[in-house]
Design goal:
22-stranded antiparallel β-barrel; mainly beta; Maltoporin, Chain A; 2 domains
């Protein structure tokens, strides 16, 4: 006990000393706007630097007066300042000027999507880390946005009432299907397959997804990896459920580098601490690694290759219908995303290739599922300013997806007991999407821009003919104000499911009006949107939704006080209606309110703490109620007798999360300690399923994650 007290006193003393010797300041541009994510380091300690926060502020330990401080950020001229000129008793203001573009920078910036100005949100890796509920997961960082209507605690993006199967995640120009791993691990650790250390910008299109990629009829999340690194960086991380490392190493200049990371997640310690909160989880073990290589071949040619590998194993308890039993799942995944950019006098050419392989084995009752999914994605794109302020991007994409299944599944869907009759489902299904597209953007003036996009499919393998088209207008009536009006018609194919082993064509018609205002410490956003989504979307084996109509309004207000305290409030009101065989019901995203307030205090020289809340009414689900059952010896199970389809609302959802962190610098080393408590109030939030006991005489509920604790540290050198 005495040793622990002395250790705490020692850590506090170090913290106080660090605070007393800190240099603080703000990084701004020539228009007094804050620069987020700027690199700040002393020449004597290049690996022990800092980065500016969302308000451009930073804090770094002072070394000695003969040292020099370097401040740099992509697209701006680096600044070197003598330490003797820095204020130690007041805040330093450092202004960076925009860097004159060379051919190499034009190549880098030319890879920026032509549709980017019509997005509603952009996140850097720093934004992801500082988000109080993201748990350093890029996709979970979207959840506290008002446009996110995720209602199942998964990282799968559900945007403005659309199902996650309608939205797409794009990684360096290549679609990544099933971007979430370990989704059955009850909100523990990382959920998506992306590492924030490699992310430059994550752009969110909550509706009207740009037609430069396609196969999306809901929204889109466009992720681009880092294109330059200023310093070499090494990190080792450890937590209650994981251990890992990452490295960023320049090979030749800032634009030729390699990044790598590896993580191992194991549930032993996590389960010991949170056992009562994770009753359905017995154990899990996940290993993953990623390598990103970027090469500047010359001033005109760049090549980037990202490769990812993961293996995971999970054991737990799961329920379907009246069956509850042990669930065993094993999986392995590998994917590769490769990009070649070539700049010439006639324009910018980019070529993208993606390959994905995924193997899954699942055992639940008499279900034995084995599948191999593999896909190829190829795109060739051309971009050029064809006239003053008019940019053209055109190209063609080919998306080939294949699923090879060898499943043993029950003949009678309600009979999942061991010994109940089964049949073999052995088949290969595939889908090929060949689509040329064109996208035109016209910057009419400094205040007004407009774009039009079109994409058409070339039918293969008995596919239907369809055309997608969109129009967008951006108007900036005054400084810091922006309006975006977008409308269009879109198409995409679903991913095969357990009971629906086929690729189904979906479509949607959308219109949205987004407003944003941002100045200094104030941010306001609002949106009004309407969607009409069609195409059969089966829900398990019960019924199929033929059409969904969604009308929504959302807003966000965020204000920073006293430099470090940020208070934000967002809310969405959604009216959603679904059509099942001509009968209309309330949709699963029909919410009178969807509140997401948060409070974050971020003082680099002291500590950071964030509290966030999510509250909404219960989701509406459709179900055939069971009125009676009869034991059927042929099926070795109780056979239910159903009534008519009816609308049921689950209980209200309430969740309060807390996150805390402390960042310390010791000469060339940096240490970050963090703690998160999820669902502080231990609220029992019902999942959307309905579960019966063995003979259907009663029902019981299952709940989302109860209160869980997670802590860890990140060591940088």
């Amino acid at each position: 006990m005495r040793k622990n007290i002395l250790l705490i006193i020692f850590m506090l003393a170090i913290s106080i000393m660090a605070k007393a010797q800190d240099i603080t300041g703000i990084i701004i541009d020539t228009e007094n706007g804050p620069i987020i994510g700027a690199n700040i380091f002393f020449a004597s300690h290049p690996n022990g630097g800092a980065i500016s926060d969302m308000n451009g502020r930073f804090s770094i330990s002072f070394t000695h007066s003969t040292d020099t401080l370097t401040v740099s950020f992509i697209g701006y001229e680096s600044k070197i300042i003598s330490a003797s000129k820095l204020k130690q008793d007041a805040e330093n203001t450092i202004v960076l000027k925009i860097e004159a573009l060379s051919i190499s920078e034009i190549v880098v910036l030319g890879a920026t999507p032509v549709s980017e100005q019509f997005s509603t949100a952009q996140l850097s890796s720093l934004d992801i880390y500082m988000n109080p509920i993201s748990q350093a997961d890029p996709l979970k960082a979207i959840i506290n946005m008002p446009a996110s209507t995720n209602s199942d605690e998964s990282a799968n993006p559900s945007l403005r009432g659309s199902s996650s199967d309608r939205s797409r995640v794009i990684y360096n120009g290549v679609p990544i299907y099933r971007p979430v791993r370990a989704s059955s691990l009850n909100n523990v650790g990382f959920f998506s397959i992306f590492n924030p250390e490699m992310i430059d910008i994550q752009t969110v299109y909550p509706s009207n997804p740009p037609l430069t990629t396609g196969n999306a009829s809901g929204g889109m999340v466009d992720i681009n990896t880092i294109r330059k690194i200023d310093i070499n960086k090494y990190q080792v991380s450890s937590g209650i459920g994981n251990v890992g490392f990452s490295v960023s190493q320049k090979l030749k200049g800032k634009s030729t580098f390699v990044q790598a990371y590896a993580n191992w997640q194991n549930s032993i310690l996590l389960k010991m601490i949170n056992d009562k909160s994770l009753p359905d989880m017995k154990s899990y073990d996940t290993k993953d690694a990623g390598v990103n290589i970027r090469l500047k071949l010359n001033d005109k040619i760049y090549f980037n290759s990202f490769n990812y590998f993961m293996s995971e194993s999970y054991k737990g308890v799961s329920s379907m219908q009246a069956y509850q039993g042990d669930l065993g799942s094993d999986g392995m995944r590998y994917f590769s995303v490769n990009n070649l950019s070539f700049f010439s006098k006639v324009g910018l050419f980019t070529f993208n290739y993606g390959y994905n392989y995924e193997k899954k084995d699942v055992l639940l009752g008499n279900n034995k599922m084995h599948s191999n999914d593999y896909s190829h994605y190829v795109s060739a794109n051309y971009k050029k300013e064809i006239a003053k302020k008019i940019t053209l991007q055109t190209g063609v994409t080919f998306d080939n997806q294949n699923t090879d299944v060898n499943n043993t599944i029950p003949i009678y869907y309600y009979a999942m007991n061991e010994g109940s009759p089964t049949f073999l489902q052995d088949t290969i299904i595939s889908n090929m999407i060949l689509e040329p597209y064109v996208y035109l953007n016209w910057d009419i003036s400094k205040k007004l821009s407009m774009s039009i996009g079109a994409r058409i499919n070339i039918p293969l393998k008995d596919q239907k003919q369809y055309q997608s088209i969109q129009y967008s207008i951006r108007y900036n009536p005054a400084n810091n104000h922006s309006l975006i009006l977008s409308t269009g018609q879109y198409h995409n194919y679903t991913q095969p499911g357990y009971y629906n082993l086929m690729y189904r064509l979906l479509s949607s018609k959308q219109v949205s009006l987004d407003y944003s205002y941002q100045k200094n410490k104030t941010k306001i956003q609002s949106a009004l949107y309407f969607k009409q989504e069609s195409g059969e979307q089966p829900v398990d084996f019960y019924y199929a939704i033929n059409k969904t109509q969604t009308l929504g309004f959302e807003f966000l207000v965020s204000q920073t006080f006293w430099k470090y305290l940020t208070i934000s409030l967002s809310n969405s009101v959604i009216k959603q209606e679904v059509d099942v065989d001509g009968v209309k019901y309330k949709g699963s995203h029909n919410f009178l309110y969807f509140l997401k307030p948060s409070i974050a205090y971020t003082a680099p020289q002291i500590f950071s703490i964030g509290i966030s809340y999510i509250g909404r009414p219960g989701s509406y689900i459709l179900d055939y109620p069971v009125y009676s059952s009869t034991w059927n010896p042929k099926t070795n199970a109780y056979e239910p007798t159903y009534g008519s389809l009816e609308e049921i609302q689950r209980g209200a959802y309430d969740r309060l999360d807390l996150s805390m962190s402390k960042h310390m610098i010791f000469r060339k080393l940096a240490l970050t300690i963090y703690l998160s408590i999820n669902n502080i109030l231990n609220t029992k939030n019902e999942t959307n399923g309905i579960y019966y006991n063995t003979n259907y005489s009663g029902t019981y509920n299952k709940y989302h994650t109860l209160r869980t604790f997670y802590a860890g540290l990140v060591f940088s050198f």
